[in-house]
């Protein structure tokens, strides 16, 4: 794999990120230790250095397995990203949320499980709609100044909150968010309304989770295979099937898997994007790794875009209206189009 810069930083990460939510079996599913180690070894041998985990994945076992593996390797080769926010202690009322107390406690626990002195990228896992954003940013900046964290990032948070945070951080001289993690795929394109344009504006790298729609875009449900995704979800409905059939058709043209096509589509969307590819079997990872060797034509990209198109809503669709409807703006729309 080649390496890319993560957001507006000099941090070099592999062009695919290894998702480790399935490392461990504490939640009744996932990969055991030997399989998890084999997956990490395969990823590293392919040049992969970017691992994504969280304090709550498999009740902490994901971090522990990564720590066991990394302790036998060159720690500085790897870029470890973990998260804090979600509840991981049933007796402490402050063992969840975005507050500073939980942040500091969670980081100390993650460092122990990961068997490391520092976390490369710390994500706020999900916005709690309670904690002031300045409390979050000051806490993250303190962790960075103390050397326990190298970079700050954010996940599953409204665009306006992230925008406010990065603007405040720039004003105050605090560390800014360099990456944004959201659900994004051919069957979940709603981040294109606000989140992805915001990320482009701030120079943030988008690290999509569920880039294969929980496996739906591999075509496994069309083949009758079972999975953890409920049949009535937006990943298993008529629209998802239509999109998946388009993906499979293009995959047949290229002689690759449907998963490769779905992953490459987002890598060619014109913004900094590093998909998080999860795996609980080594064969799954090997197939995903082949993505970096393919390219989609403009016609194939257009075909996928049209099959998965969503309304942008206001003001996105309003901005796309033809010039005739915007004459009252005195040619403003035409001038913008020419600059693009």
Automatic annotation (TrEMBL):
* One of the record's GO cellular component terms: cytosol
Record has DNA-binding as a keyword: no
InterPro entries, alphabetized: AKR_Detox_Biosynth, NAD(P)_OxRdtase_dom_sf, NADP_OxRdtase_dom
Q: Which UniProt keywords apply?
A: Oxidoreductase
**Domain NADP-dependent oxidoreductase as annotated: residue spans:** 15-308
**Does the keyword section mention Oxidoreductase?**
yes
One Gene Ontology molecular-function label: oxidoreductase activity
Which protein are we looking at?
Aldo/keto reductase
């Amino acid at each position: 794999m080649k390496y890319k810069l993560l957001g507006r930083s000099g941090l070099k990460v592999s062009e695919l990120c290894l998702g480790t939510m399935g490392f461990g079996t504490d939640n009744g599913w996932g990969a055991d230790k030997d399989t998890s180690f084999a997956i990490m070894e395969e990823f590293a041998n392919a040049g992969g250095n970017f691992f994504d985990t969280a304090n709550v994945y498999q009740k902490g076992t994901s971090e522990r397995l990564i720590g066991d593996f990394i302790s036998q390797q060159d720690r500085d080769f790897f870029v470890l990203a973990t998260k804090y926010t979600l509840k991981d202690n049933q007796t402490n009322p402050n063992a969840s949320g975005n507050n500073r107390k939980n942040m500091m406690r969670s980081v100390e626990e993650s460092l122990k499980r990961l068997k490391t002195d520092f976390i490369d990228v710390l994500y706020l896992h999900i916005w709690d709609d309670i904690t002031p954003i300045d409390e979050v940013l000051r806490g993250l900046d303190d962790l960075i100044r103390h050397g326990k964290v190298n970079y700050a990032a954010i996940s599953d948070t409204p665009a306006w909150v992230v925008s406010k945070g990065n603007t405040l951080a720039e004003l105050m001289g605090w560390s800014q968010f360099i990456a944004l993690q959201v659900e994004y795929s051919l069957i979940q394109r709603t981040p294109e309304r606000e989140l992805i344009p915001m990320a482009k504006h701030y120079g943030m790298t988008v690290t999509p989770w569920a880039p294969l729609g929980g496996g739906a875009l591999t075509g496994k449900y069309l083949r009758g295979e079972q999975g953890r995704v409920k049949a009535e979800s937006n990943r298993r409905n008529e629209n998802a099937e239509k999109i998946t059939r388009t993906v499979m058709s293009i995959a047949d043209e290229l002689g690759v898997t449907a998963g490769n096509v779905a992953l490459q589509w987002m890598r060619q969307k014109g913004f900094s994007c590093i998909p998080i590819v999860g795996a609980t079997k080594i064969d799954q990872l090997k197939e995903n790794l082949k993505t970096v060797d393919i390219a989609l034509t403009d016609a194939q990209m257009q075909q996928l875009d049209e099959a998965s198109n969503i309304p942008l809503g206001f003001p996105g669709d309003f901005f796309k209206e033809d010039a005739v409807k915007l004459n009252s703006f005195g040619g403003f729309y035409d001038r913008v189009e020419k600059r693009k």
